[in-house]
């Protein structure tokens, strides 16, 4: 059974072509390594670019898509496995459970929601799956600055900075997935009283 790498990305059809090109490079790279893709099941935007490139290069494609999106003809029906679910929450849960690692490409608020949840769960030691953020052309500079402020003001420990890898290009993704940096759960979870839910 090949590793399944979850890719979070955009379904927008209106992006600069450079974003689709990186999505295609990620898809090819997955297949070249004998890995499969698990993603949101769409045929549009960067989602479609990643899926088509993975499939064309001989990689396995698993899509998880809510029924309402499938009804709007947004599904990638060429997927090797297309799982239809009832809700966005179920979609996120299945992708996270079945994935062996995560790649986050530039995306919108949905992409941010998805990767944030994975970060929280890894920070709480609920999983130890590698996560790489692709900061293409500085797209996530603002988010990374926010994380730095979070650490500086002690909302998170300095260890938070090793929770995920940051790649500037598609080529930089693979070493970060193959040899991820060590990360231990936040110190709050290793000693002292149990934190409240707001500490997450």
> How large is the radius of gyration?
17 Å
Number of domains: 1
How would you spell out the order of helices and strands? EHEHEHEHEHEHEH
Q: Please give the number of β-strands.
A: 7
Helix content: 25-40%
Q: What structural class is derived from the secondary structure elements?
A: alpha/beta
Q: Report the span from N to C terminus.
A: 33 Å
Strand order of the largest sheet: 4-3-2-1-5-6-7
CATH fold topology: Rossmann fold
- The CATH class name reads Alpha Beta
* Largest sheet, strands/sense/barrel: 7 strands, parallel
Question: Kindly state the mean pLDDT as a whole number?
Answer: 91
Name the poorly predicted regions. 192-200
Q: What is the overall shape?
A: globular
What fraction of the residues are assigned to beta strands by DSSP? 15-25%
CATH architecture: 3-Layer(aba) Sandwich
Outline:
The protein is α/β, with parallel strands linked by helices and 200 residues long. It is 38% helix and 16% strand. A 7-stranded parallel β-sheet has the order 4-3-2-1-5-6-7, sandwiched between helices.
Describe this structure in words.
By secondary structure, this protein is α/β, with parallel strands linked by helices. It has one domain (4-199): Rossmann fold, CATH 3.40.50.450. It is built from seven helices and seven strands, in the order E-H-E-H-E-H-E-H-E-H-E-H-E-H. The chain has helices at residues 17-32, 45-56, 67-71, 88-98, 109-123, 141-152, 173-178; strands at 4-8, 36-39, 61-66, 81-85, 101-104, 131-134, 165-167. The chain has a seven-stranded parallel beta sheet with strand order 4-3-2-1-5-6-7, with helices on both faces. Helix 5 (109-123) links the parallel strand 5 and strand 6. Helix 1 runs parallel beside helix 2. The longest helix is centred in the N-terminal third of the chain and has 16 residues, at 17-32. The chain is globular and about 45 Å long. The two termini are 33 Å apart. Mean pLDDT is 91; it is low at 192-200.
